[in-house]
Amino acid sequence: MAIGTQDTSDEVMSEINMIPFIDVMLVLLIIFIITVPVIKHAVNVELPQASVEKVQDKPENIHLAVDADGQYFWNEQQVDDRVFAERLAAAALQEPQPELHIRGDKAVRYERVALAMAAAQKAGLRKIGFITEPAP
Question: Does residue 8 belong to any structural domain of this protein?
């Protein structure tokens, strides 16, 4: 004989009671809302004023190609050794100096490329680079 309304079965309750969870989350939300303005980390800094000067433009790069016969091509125009040295000296006097990009044919003798690098160094060019193609 069962008295009262209690369930005497041993079944596990499969639902989670969400009310305590919601209460805790609301309390935490209120705490964060109150404490965030207090934790504000703002430092008053007097920033420097920027000048409005024109930035110096970077000069065009010099593209030097050395073909298989050892001929120099300055920005796609063929030049002889004397004119090449004169143009290097003029480029070295520019401020800021342009970069010298060397493209050498793989069949050219290394001597011609080395002479071009030596002439650029003698003229005073400080930025010399090589242009190659990636291996297939």
Answer: no
Q: pLDDT band for position 7 (50/70/90)?
A: low
What domain range is 98 assigned to? 62-130
Residue 62: HSE in the Cβ half-sphere, 13 Å Cα cutoff: 27
The label of the residue with tokens 């930035």 reads 55
- On the CB side of 112, CA atoms within 13 Å amount to 21
Count CB neighbours of 88 within 10 A.
21
Side-chain-facing half-sphere of 10: CA atoms under 13 Å: 0
| DSSP 8-state code for residue 38 | T
User: Does residue 9 sit within a domain?
Assistant: no
Within a domain: 3: no
pTM of the complete model:
0.56
The whole-number average pLDDT for the span 43-69 is 78
Domain total for the chain? Answer: 1
72 contact partners, CB below 8 Å, separation of at least 6: 64, 65, 66, 78, 79, 80, 81, 84, 112, 116
Let me know if residue 44 belongs to a domain.
Answer: no
